[in-house]
Amino acid sequence: MPVSGSRRSPGSQVLVALVAAGPLSRAELGRRLGMSPPTVTRVVRPLLRSGAVAERPPRERSGPGRPTRRLAVVEGSAAFLGVKLTENRLYAVLTDPLGTVLAQEDPPLECTEAEAVVALIATVMARLSRRAGRAVDGIGISLGGAVVDHRLVKVATFLGWREVALADLVSAATGAPCTVANDVRAFAYAEALFGAGRDKDPFALVTVGAGIGCGIVVGGEVVPGARGAAGSVGHLPVAEGGPACEVGHAGCARAVASTSGIRAALTQRLGREVGLAEALGPGLRDLPEVRDVLRRAAGATGVLVGTLIAFLEPELTVVSGEGVGVIAAHRDAFDEEVARLRHWAASPAPIVLRPFEFDEWARGAAALAVKRWTETVDWH
Questions:
Q1: How far apart are CA 91 and CA 161, in angstroms?
Q2: Where in the sequence is the domain holding 49, given as residue range(s)?
Q3: pLDDT confidence of residue 2
Q4: Both 95 and 34 in a single domain?
Q5: Residue that terminates a domain, selected from 76, 94, 112
Q6: How would you classify the pairing of strands 146-148 and 152-156?
Q7: Residue 35 burial (CB count, 10 A)
Q8: How far apart are the C-alpha atoms of 46 and 338, rounded to whole Å?
Q9: What CA–CA distance (Å, rounded) separates 105 from 119?
Q10: Is the domain of 349 the same as that of 214?
Q11: Residue 6: its pLDDT value, please?
């Protein structure tokens, strides 16, 4: 994941490069970050002293000359708590700086009052810290909602929150620095740092589930937008003549392709409540009325992704979320719409469907804490 030209300090740039790419020689770091050899040596020296970075044995010699030692982030140099909040459960993972999960749990969220959620986060942190035998160096929290300055939840409808200074509350309760972000953007950053989006620039992540969202990573940074609302694509029109969403937008992505939109359409067609798993099961998936609903949802998502690709031309687009199974089952309808929106001279754009797991979203939140760690620790 390129980091040159970012606002990060040189030490932060080196750390992020080593997290994203794995062990690198000083020469490789210099080329990747546009730093001269003396600058690399100067920047790396305090990282080595801190214990965050260590030298690794050289690769096996493949030719003449002195073997080159590589630099790598030390796995045990720090630990980070990632939390993904849903309306009824808290998903938490403890990771090292490279995203390896050390411990995890997913307790129910029995009360959504901010004070109760903060108390549960503190309790979970203490349990995971004891289990892993590691103190927590930072906390990242992701949730479906609007977040300002990585600390203030402006609105999270599913929790009933408005103007909740979540990062400050959690830091006060735990003593650890905390950063908060929209869940899709956090997931996109984690995929760019640790996952399929590594070294892909630009990189895009589209999630389809209870909501519809998009995260865009350019030059190693998630694009937040002028007021933190970049990627809010759920109400874009994608199906002419389609049903209206809960706020009256006819044929928008949320109305047609979200899990609630799909369930509503299936209920209307079948005359009873039908969940997504049942609709994709062997008993219903081949019924014409079910196929129509699912294919329309897959095609609508294709319109959304195809439009994104036309505007951004990502090196890779990942599609995930609870509704990804619908796209997998009707990939031809999805691909047809993506292809229809592609410029005749443009090459086909790589698209990967990623299985959905809530703990991966929690790992995405932990990546926020890793990012803050690289940026705020004094590496001089």
A1: 18
A2: 10-76
A3: 40
A4: no
A5: 76
A6: antiparallel
A7: 20
A8: 48
A9: 15
A10: yes
A11: 47
* Cβ–Cβ < 8 Å for 135, 129: yes
Q: What is the amino acid identity at position 286?
A: D
Measured distance CA(229)–CA(219) in Å, rounded: 19
Number of domains in the chain: 3
Strand duo 161-164 + 152-156: pairing: antiparallel
**What is the CATH number for 72?**
1.10.10.10
What are the tens digits of pLDDT across the range 140-186?
Answer: 999 988 888 889 999 898 899 999 999 999 999 999 999 999 999 88
Residues 85 and 53 in one domain: no
Length of the chain: 380
Residue from 231, 233, 207, 235 nearest 217 by CA: 231
The CATH number of the domain holding residue 132 is 3.30.420.40
- Spans of the chain below 50 pLDDT: 1-6
H helix runs in the chain, sequence order: 10-21, 26-33, 37-50, 114-132, 166-174, 183-194, 253-257, 259-270, 276-280, 288-312, 324-329, 331-341, 358-376
Residues 246 and 291 in one domain: yes
pLDDT at 65: 56
Cα 276 to chain centroid, rounded:
23
Residue 218 and residue 228: Cα distance in Å, rounded?
15
